[in-house]
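Re: weekly structure request thread

Next one in the queue (120 aa):
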Amino acid sequence: MDEMTSSSPTVSQRDQWMVESQVFQIYQLFATIPPNAQSLMLELQRDKHIEFLTKGLRHLGPNFSVLDANRPWLCYWIIHSIALLGESIDDELQDNTVEFLNRCKDPNGGFAGGPGQASG
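Done, posted below.
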């Protein structure tokens, strides 16, 4: 049996299955609630989202290490999400993000996934 057909799940697969199971349970519970109560439960916790996004723009934890080559994209999606919530990032964070993205520029054109990486 080769690596690709291994029968033991990876840690990330187990984590994904756990999250899917939890979300499915929430959806099942939500489906049993009357529609007027559902609308009361659908509250965007805007401040918590902004806090999470801003924290992610400052530093991504070790769980995001598999996304290392996607860091410029993550910057884009995080900043875009903050903008969709009607907010902006502070000047220091903006400067740090621009400086990081400049370090991702490839002298031959394009952007790499991170400083010192090839742009492909």
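The mean pLDDT is 86. The first helix runs from residue 11 to 31.
Next request, please.
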